[in-house]
Write a structure and sequence with these properties.
alpha+beta; 4 helices; three-stranded antiparallel β-sheet
Length: about 90
């Protein structure tokens, strides 16, 4: 927060207000567990880790990911707890 405040105020903005937003993120976009697994393996770090791995490792990792996400299933959603900051400021 200090760094953001420093950058904004040195750039001619008022000291920012920080509001933490706790929320559940539906990583399945309402399309179920299998979609969440697919999305999780096609983007980000998991995709990088699985790239160029033997099929057996990929299959094992996908099964493990499915097991790890299962407790977060809520109907057709897979809701993971998340948080973000809403930062507001205005010209000084």
């Amino acid at each position: 927060m200090e760094r953001v405040t420093e950058v904004l105020t040195k750039s001619g903005w008022t000291p920012p207000l920080f509001k933490k937003l706790d929320l559940d993120l539906d990583i399945a976009a309402g399309r179920g567990l299998e979609e969440a697994v697919i999305q999780s393996t096609q983007i980000g770090v998991v995709n990088s880790w699985l790239r160029n791995q033997p099929g057996e490792i990929v299959s094992t990792a996908i099964a493990s990911l499915r097991d790890a996400l299962s407790p977060y299933v809520d109907g057709n959603s897979v809701r993971l707890p998340g948080a973000m900051w809403l930062i507001s400021s205005e010209p000084a």
